[in-house]
Design brief:
Number of strands: 12
Mean pLDDT: 90
Number of helices: 10
Distance between the termini: 26 Å
Shape: globular
Largest sheet: 8 strands, mixed
Order of helices and strands: EEEHEEHEHHHHEHEHEEHHEE
Low-confidence stretches: none
CATH class of the domain at 4-81 and 215-317: Alpha Beta
Strand content: 15-25%
Radius of gyration: 21 Å
Amino acid sequence: MGEKLLEIKNLTVAYETDLETVHAVNNISFSLEKGSTLGIVGETGAGKTTTALSILRLLPERTAKIRSGAVLFKGEDLLSYTESGMLKVRGAKISMIFQDPMTALNPILTVEDQIGETLRFHNAENKTSAEIAAKVEETLEMVGIPAFRKKDYPHQLSGGMKQRVVIAIALACEPELLIADEPTTALDVTIQAQVLAMIEELKTRLDTSMIMITHDLGVVAQTCDDVCVMYAGEIIEIGSAEDIFTAPAHHPYTVGLFGSLPNLKADTPRLSPISGLMPDPTNLPKGCKFSPRCPRRMDICEEKEPSAFVNGTHTICCHLY
């Protein structure tokens, strides 16, 4: 076991309005070792992004409530930090690549201004304006964008280049933890492969740990050391990448995710999608949250929440085990 950089303990997050309460994240726990990559995988609405925003304390102030839990970064609970304390963490120690590069960038600021803003705010080494400008060019070159494009505005860049700029902003201060929230969703498969390879290379070069949030098990296989499978705000399976991809036992939802991957063999169905929809987060079902969609459900699944079955580094929350 390596040194734990991040540890989430019993985190519960809800979005509350006058009319209803959305149970977004429900008592989840996991940890990330220094230098490793953790994948969080699941359908839209599983609670992946809410988990990431909770770590950085970027949840909507008026509606989001962290009801319980701890977010330990290098042993210190970020949930106890003041806002001024969190400003020193965001960007410098923990950065996030946001989901949509089209909306993550400010349309009225140049690329240079947006990368430079992060560097100026966290200018612990008291660099001069010229040194910051040189660092901007170095960061752009690092993500494969020629330095002369620094004067461009976002609308002058392709989707792939916008994503590279977002990555450059996140890595400008060389953070210890990078959270990548579906960083390739808006890109075609060719550019997606290039961006993933670049993220992996930069992670290794900068000795950065990473949380990769995705719905694509192919991305998980390419980038992750450990994997959490989330469903309806809960972690239903967790283990090393080897456990998730080669172990004989899996949660039926994980089996469904594998079945949703394209199969090019001529004698088998190309896709085996999971039937039904994610449950309403304002009215989650009793017992196992996946039971209404599960092809292997039993009577106990609809009445009692499953306990964790642990086999070495592999944990499954299912009544089948």
